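ARCHIVE RECORD
Type: protein–small molecule complex
Small molecule: guanosine-5'-triphosphate
Source of inputs: curated submission
Record status: active
Notes field left blank by submitter.
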Amino acid sequence: MGPAGSGKSTYCATMMTHCQNIGRSVHLFNLDPAAEKFEYNPTIDIRDLITLEDVMEELQYGPNGGLIYCLEFLLNNMDWLEDELGEYEDDYLIIDCPGQIELYTHFPIMRRICECLQRMHFRICGVYLLESQFIQDNSKFFAGVMSAMSAMVSLEIPHINVLSKMDLLGKFKKRELERRAQIIVSYTCILS
Ligand SMILES: Nc1nc2c(ncn2[C@@H]2O[C@H](COP(=O)(O)OP(=O)(O)OP(=O)(O)O)[C@@H](O)[C@H]2O)c(=O)[nH]1
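STRUCTURE (tokenized, with ligand):
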């Protein structure tokens, strides 16, 4: 999870490579009906069920309303997902989620998808990506921390925050960020 462009697909691809290197049986599940390309082809893909492009064209929805429609459509067709997941119930799944933050913080959609997966006996862990460059600015730092916490509280699953794009920071900025990261950890611990 994480805002648009925070590095979710890159993180998923890196984790796929890592898991394959250490011999884990792992698959990519694309949950973004608007996704265009992937480094690894997804084994399970919501676009096989519904695409944002079709919804926008046929129902005249905008991109945000269209995305909500697609995920609600998935929730109403969970037997499709159950069939798709059937073969992989003993494997690791990495789920690449859409970047619209309101899906985690405002609407119960992602929570309901998590609950469905839990009913299928999957054990879920949320990974929330925050772009390290964004949180150097005070207001963006608090906005990022709050959105990560909001996702954690609303999904009620084990939650890990990851700062992405650290390679773009210089030495001084990295040190400053470490100090701020401590604050994120403290807030997260207080709330959990
Ligand atoms: N330098 C650097 N660039 C990165 C890193 N992770 C991702 N990027 C770049 O950031 C851009 C966005 O990365 P994505 O992985 O597509 O981000 P995303 O969160 O999946 O984006 P959406 O699907 O649009 O929400 C791409 O150009 C990546 O190459 C990183 O760790 N370092």
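CURATOR ANNOTATION: The longest strand covers residues 126-131.
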